[in-house]
């Protein structure tokens, strides 16, 4: 127990330092800020959710004492809570119905692990909550929020100028529209990447107490598509409700895009130069951004038409799982 407590406090200290580094203004602090959940996720996967909870509470308390209550709340919502809960879900398993362990060999029964698609939905929920909470610190209605964002961006981009030019104003107006959506995308991507990295680190160290998930089979629940359609419809009603619906829509679009990558990994199983094609697609998406729309469409098509199931039924994969 003492060893677990030391690991928990060390992970909490590392996360707190990475989170607080943003006040330095250094470029590297941005990367450290987004990787702040990683130590707690590694602790949750390798030493248990309780250790991550202890580390998160300790880190939030220290940050609150040093920098004030807003930093404590921000760390708890953006780092500690997602790190603890996502690590807990990743290790959540239950015996598969109809199976039993080998008592003679002292082997436990086969386990069904918490679906990766549902973990993606939790990541989307955290992205929506953190982005919404950040916007509510600027105001309680869309006019106040957009006005505060616009003034802050104008002040930042027109530093040294008494009167910002029309080009800067148009650029800022576009940023104000897309800033909440971009924040949601960043939250989705960074949380997903942190959880994947934490899994790789614990697997490499031999402390991952579960088999590595088969990401090719990742799928969102059917109700996620219904939620996406409802969110898209509400996005046009106007006001604060529309802004919140746009944030939810963005989170679900990224979730389906991640499913689209899983579909892509399945549909390319029989390709001879599979690694080259996948690497090229990932590079194009990272470099240009907009091709993610095609990957999202692939995820939606699989949800509606079952592309992976049809492919595997008609053309069994000749290559081993990757």
UniProtKB/TrEMBL annotation:
Per UniProt, the keywords (alphabetical) are: Membrane, Transmembrane, Transmembrane helix
Which ranges does the record mark as transmembrane?
35-55, 62-85, 119-140, 175-199, 219-244, 251-271, 277-305
Transmembrane as a keyword of this entry, yes or no, is yes
Q: What is this protein called?
A: Predicted membrane protein
């Amino acid at each position: 127990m003492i060893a677990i407590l030391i690991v928990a406090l060390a992970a909490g200290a590392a996360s707190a330092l990475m989170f607080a580094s943003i006040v330095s203004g250094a470029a590297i602090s941005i990367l450290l800020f987004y990787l702040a959940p990683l130590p707690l996720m590694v602790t949750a996967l390798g030493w248990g959710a309780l250790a991550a909870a202890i580390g998160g509470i300790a880190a939030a308390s220290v940050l609150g004492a040093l920098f004030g209550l807003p930093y404590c709340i921000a760390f708890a919502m953006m780092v500690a809570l997602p790190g603890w809960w996502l690590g807990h879900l990743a290790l959540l398993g239950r015996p598969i119905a109809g199976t039993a362990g080998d008592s003679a060999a002292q082997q436990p029964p086969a386990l069904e692990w918490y679906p990766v698609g549902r973990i993606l939905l939790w990541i989307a929920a955290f992205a929506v909550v953190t982005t919404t909470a950040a916007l509510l610190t600027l105001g309680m209605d869309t006019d106040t929020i957009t006005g505060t964002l616009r003034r802050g961006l104008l002040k930042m981009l027109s530093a040294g100028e008494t009167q910002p030019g029309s080009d800067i104003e148009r650029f800022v107006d576009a940023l104000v529209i897309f800033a909440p959506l971009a924040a949601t995308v960043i939250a989705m991507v960074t949380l997903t990447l942190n959880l994947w990295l934490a899994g790789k680190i614990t697997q490499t160290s031999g402390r991952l107490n579960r088999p590595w998930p088969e990401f090719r089979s990742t799928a969102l629940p059917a109700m996620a598509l219904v939620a996406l359609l409802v969110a898209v419809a509400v996005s046009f009603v106007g006001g604060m409700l529309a802004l919140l619906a746009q944030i939810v829509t963005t989170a679900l679009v990224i979730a389906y895009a991640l499913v689209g990558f899983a579909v892509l990994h399945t549909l390319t199983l029989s390709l001879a130069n599979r690694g080259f094609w996948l690497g090229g697609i990932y590079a194009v998406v990272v470099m240009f951004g907009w091709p993610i729309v095609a990957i999202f469409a692939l995820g939606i098509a699989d949800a509606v038409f079952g592309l992976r199931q049809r492919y595997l039924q008609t053309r069994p994969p000749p290559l081993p799982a990757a």
